[in-house]
Amino acid sequence: MGSLIAAAGALWIVVIIWDAFEAIVLPRRVTRRLRPTRMFYRVTWRIWSTVARRMPMSGRRETYLSFFGPLSLLVLIAAWAASLVVGFALVQNGLGAGLNVAGGGSFVDYLYLSGETFFTLGLGDIVPASRLGRGLVVLEAGIGFAFLALVIGYLPVLYQSFSRREVSITLLDARAGSPPSAEELLRGSLNDPDELTALLREWERWSAEVLESHLSYPVLSYYRSQHDNQSWLTALTTMLDASAIVVVGVHDTCARQAKLTFAMARHTVVDLAQVLHRAPIDSSPDRLPATELVRLRAGLAATGVVIAGGGGAHDQRAARRRRDEPVVAARAADVRVPRPAGRPTCPTVSFETGVGLGSLPLARVARTSSPLSELRDGALKRRPQLIPSSRRPCFHVFPGATRGVLELGQLLLQHLAASLQLVDQLLGLRLGLARLGFQCLDLRLQGRELGLNTAA
């Protein structure tokens, strides 16, 4: 019986060490279904997402879902450590390695010895009496030290990959809005083929980095972006839509780069779905039906962007969507992220001209009657006061919005500096008045002394 217990403990130690090696060290995907890490995430995410499904679509729900990625990683590391401690305790107990306690020690004593050794505490109050037990203690101490070193080195690499992913998603806001859409992206970039080519090339590389990092560290799929309307899957789907529109509707120099970006983005979505064993959802609704596609072409044409709209082009776009939409829908349903719309679902706002500020769901805009000095382009004449409301931020920004915001911020800083200068002048005036008062008091005292001397 003792040999079976020792064999079970040794087997469990090997399984946990191999699982941690595949999750932390091995830089390639693992397709085996029976893995402790995979079963852990399958069970915990099912429970976590079931609770989230009962919550309304709000910031509270997004905050709740955002806790799963970091928290599950910490729980997984703790589960690995606890499993190794229990495994070595089973081996020590099964082999009958006596301890320097009365009766040779119980399983609780072996468990205490294993935990003390794994975390290299070095208390020495309970030690094995046999040579075999001491050898196991040395082996467990080495494994525990190596495990802690791997965990310490694993977390910075994981968060560096997350940070690189989020930088490009944040930069996409100024080009495609928040949440992003293919129409808004093409509206500001399609008139400049060189700029669009560079953008598509950048997102081709980003898609490859996402594929590599999420295959090596699948837990990154559950790390959500810092803003409610941002998501790595939403950004990837937006680039799929934009690339498909450029490929079949724009016959220009950027069409080849659009094909490469589309191929890389689709490769990323399909591979991640296959690794996580997510079956495509064929019954997912079309995000860009024919009527919406006509409106998209009309909206782009109003800004001078012409998209081919023949029957052949529409059929090609539909064929590409039929291949990709089921996979995208499966990943979106898995990570509880809404798929992006092909067209903007919120009012478009330009911070350069102030158009659309009154319809922002984020805030109510109140115009003041005191004029400010003009901006360099003379677009804004009065200062908008944004009064936050309880609704979620949902707005689209033209590509030139950043310049307008920076100029507005510079203007506010100038007014703040002028106000501080005025306060400084008022303080100086007050100090001067105080000095004048002291001088008057001094003259009065001198006059009183002179009068007393004359009287004497």
Q: What structural class do you assign from the helix and strand content?
A: mainly alpha
How large a portion of the residues is in β-strands, by DSSP E?
Answer: under 5%
Number of helices: 13
Order of helices and strands: HHHHHHHHHHHHEEEEH
Q: List the uncertain runs.
A: 348-402
Model description:
The chain is mainly α. The chain has three domains: 2-155, Orthogonal Bundle (Helix Hairpins), CATH 1.10.287.70; 177-335, no CATH class; 348-445, no CATH class. The protein is built from 13 helices and four strands. The strands form two sheets. A two-stranded parallel sheet has the order 1-4. Strands 2-3 form a two-stranded antiparallel sheet. Helix 1 (2-25) runs antiparallel to helix 4, helix 5 packs across helix 6 (131-176) and helix 8 packs parallel to helix 10. The longest helix is centred in the last third of the chain and has 55 residues, at 401-455. The protein starts with a helix and ends with a helix. Mean pLDDT is 76; it is low at 348-402.
Q: What order do the helices and strands come in, and which of them pair?
A:
Layout lengths: L1 H24 L10 H18 L5 H8 L1 H28 L11 H12 L12 H46 L5 H8 L3 H24 L15 H18 L4 H22 L14 H12 L9 H25 L12 E2 L13 E5 L16 E5 L7 E2 L3 H55 L1
Parallel strand pairs: 1-4
Antiparallel strand pairs: 2-3
